[in-house]
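Putative type I site-specific restriction-modification system S subunit: structure tokens wanted.
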Amino acid sequence: MESLTLMPKYEVYKNSGEDWIGDIPSGWELVPIRSIFKFRNEKNSPVKTEEILSLSIANGVTKYSDKGRGGNKRKDDISAYKIAHPKDIVLNSMNVIVGAVGMSKYHGAISPVYYALYTESEDVLVEYYEKIFLNEGFQRGLLKFGKGILIKLSGTGKLNTIRMKVSTDDLKSLYFPKPPIAEQNLIFSFLDKKTAQIDEAISIKEQQINLLKERNQIIIHKAVTQGLNSNVLMKDTGIDWIGKIPEHWDISLAKHILKKLNRPRKKNGDTVICSNHGCSKLLGEVNQGLVSLTQHDYQGVDEGDLLVHGMDAWHGAIAISEHTGDCTSVVHVCDSHFNKVYIAYFLKMLAIMNVYKVISNGVRGNTSDFRSWSKFGEIQIILPPMDEQAAIVELLSKQIQDTERAIEMFQNQIVALKEYKASFIHTVVTGKVKVTPEMVEQ
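Answer:
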């Protein structure tokens, strides 16, 4: 990564008067947004386009028809929508504070809660200003205008989506730096190249993480279906997703192996959640739908209990609880005379192989429903002898722990790269370094 301190600077700076901008080069202007952009209020009534555009923090402006687009759900009456054109800056008035903004590449209809900003000035490069709109410093500067529910700071320092509307009048009153158009072009070209390099480095590390996760899945599958001794005789189970297993292993139903517990709620207990990330404890807050908003139907959980989420087992929400507390009744809280850690690994293997989705019709589009204990109890589980269960757990725990450490290392590197990228963009677009033609050509 390039050191920002070694890059050339402008000779003279002046105070912008805006905290998030800081000092800007003396040759730059500081102007209100209203002098750069106009707010497009073109209505889709009568209907001019059927192409719906969506906006998300992760993907910016995309076509609603694109897979994995994110953004708001389409309304039935598209005549209530507004129109956006290519090179419009589209922002979600309710979520711009957390990054729901981007430049459109398309002509289409946008939600009434979105703003579309456009320019007719020849001395304005929209791509340069998109970088400013995406700047976290600018977004956090909008907090003073936000009118809505509340916001939440995540553990990574990122603001999570909690709706706070920013009005057009508030936006129009904000000030942006305005470099000469030649410098806008240099800055954009330089950032386009450099951020692509950073994104490539992030992508490589994400691929490495995916390979490590696949390695974990292969290790788990082989261990819980074939054991640790490759020289034993095998037998066919007749079960498609299992195939052959060691001849001396048994197969039984979950209802014969696991005992469903119905513990009373703990007094003043913490909330325990079971997700595909494992089992964690929540202190006094509701977290992204993993726990229900009302707790009258909660049950007690002890450390060491096996937890299986009735709705999210397909996603790997199976864990041995590391906490004592309460959890939603959607989770099956279980005990067993067999090795619960081994059983958890086996049940996770079924998730890896999409078995839950194959044998269950979900109530949501991309899930499976095993809230019924009698239904879950019919799942077939492979049972090695107890000593082999223990040996499998010991091997998997060590190998997976090693892999998880490597994954955590790459994740930390990705966080560092994203932080560097954000700092790099902020430094360049606010003129803290001077971009030269030579820097663009390098």
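Residues 370 and 376 are 6 Å apart (CA to CA). The domain at 31-71+78-178 is CATH 3.90.220.20 (Adenine-n6-DNA-methyltransferase TaqI; Chain A, domain 2).

Cheers.
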